[in-house]
């Protein structure tokens, strides 16, 4: 079942669990970062996901409209009521990756609903360093889209200590949004769609190869 956030009972359950132990450190960090430097609002991570215990960190570009409070869920979650979240939920499931295996995040974690600029991505890299420090079990980083790959390069350049002594497997692919397939060549569209599927499969294989320990 996808788009569970349309169900009021599920959404209320997420709201009630936003400070459960496995997501409390991340969501308390979000509370501090909200409106920091006038940047604005930032969604919490849904307790549906693994939080600090997750073995996979999944990074997209920026929070979408369905992460907004009021018009959306108020959370980063693959069960949000939008096509991008639905596709992620589907491909993760097909790859044998459960919601508790993953913590979703964004290259620029504040809500802007547009492509972040260089300065914003640099700010995102600083936050990403903090997030990784809260996720000691993370062994796989899934970079989805150009901005996610950009912020990771910035992290490596300006905060190399964030991954020092950590054996992280980094998997890069296209963003799961529809725009990633906005190309004329049907063969190229098919190649990109398959690349996303193959990348999720790599994430699943990495989890299985370690026997659940990363």
Please give the structural blueprint:
Blueprint: H1 8-16, H2 24-33, E1 44-45, E2 56-60, E3 75-76, H3 83-94, E4 102-106, H4 118-134, E5 140-144, H5 146-158, E6 169-173, H6 186-209
Parallel strand pairs: 1-3, 2-4, 2-5, 5-6
Helix pairs in contact: 4-5
- Proportion of strand residues: 5-15%
Name the helicity range.
25-40%
Helix-strand topology string = HHEEEHEHEHEH
Number of strands: 6
How confident is the prediction overall: mean pLDDT? Answer: 95
- Poorly predicted runs of 5 or more residues: none
CATH fold name? Uracil-DNA Glycosylase, subunit E
Number of domains: 1
- Please give the largest β-sheet: 4 strands, parallel
How many whole angstroms does the radius of gyration measure?
16 Å
* Strands side by side in the biggest sheet: 4-2-5-6
Q: CATH class, anyone?
A: Alpha Beta
In DSSP terms (H or I, runs of 4 or more residues), the helix count works out at 6
- For the record, the CATH architecture stands as 3-Layer(aba) Sandwich
Helix-strand category: alpha/beta
- Terminal CA distance reads 28 Å
The CATH homologous superfamily name equals Uracil-DNA glycosylase-like domain
Account of the 3D structure:
The chain is of the alpha/beta class. The chain has one domain (4-209): Uracil-DNA glycosylase-like domain (Uracil-DNA Glycosylase, subunit E, 3-Layer(aba) Sandwich). It is 40% helix and 11% strand. The protein is built from 6 helices and 6 strands. The strands form 2 sheets. A 4-stranded parallel sheet has the order 4-2-5-6. Strand 5, helix 5 and strand 6 (169-173) form a beta-alpha-beta unit. It is globular.
């Amino acid at each position: 079942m996808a788009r569970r956030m349309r169900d009021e009972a599920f959404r209320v359950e997420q709201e009630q669990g936003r400070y459960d132990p496995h997501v409390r450190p991340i969501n308390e960090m979000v509370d501090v970062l909200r409106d920091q430097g006038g940047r604005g609002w930032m969604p919490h991570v849904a307790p549906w996901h693994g939080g600090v215990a997750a073995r996979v960190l999944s990074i997209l570009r920026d929070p979408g409209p369905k992460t907004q409070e009021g018009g959306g869920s108020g959370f980063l979650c693959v069960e949000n009521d939008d096509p991008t979240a639905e596709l992620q939920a589907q491909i993760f499931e097909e790859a044998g990756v459960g919601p508790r295996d993953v913590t979703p995040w964004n290259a620029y974690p504040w809500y802007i609903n547009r492509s972040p600029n260089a300065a914003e991505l640099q700010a995102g890299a600083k936050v990403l360093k903090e997030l990784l420090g809260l996720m000691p079990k993370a062994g796989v980083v899934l970079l989805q889209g150009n901005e996610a790959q950009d912020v990771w390069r910035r992290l490596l350049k300006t905060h190399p200590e964030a991954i020092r002594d950590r054996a992280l497997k980094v998997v890069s692919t296209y963003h799961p949004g529809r725009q990633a397939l906005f190309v004329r060549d049907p063969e190229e569209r098919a190649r990109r769609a398959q690349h996303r599927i193959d990348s999720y499969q790599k994430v699943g294989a990495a989890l299985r190869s370690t026997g659940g320990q990363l």
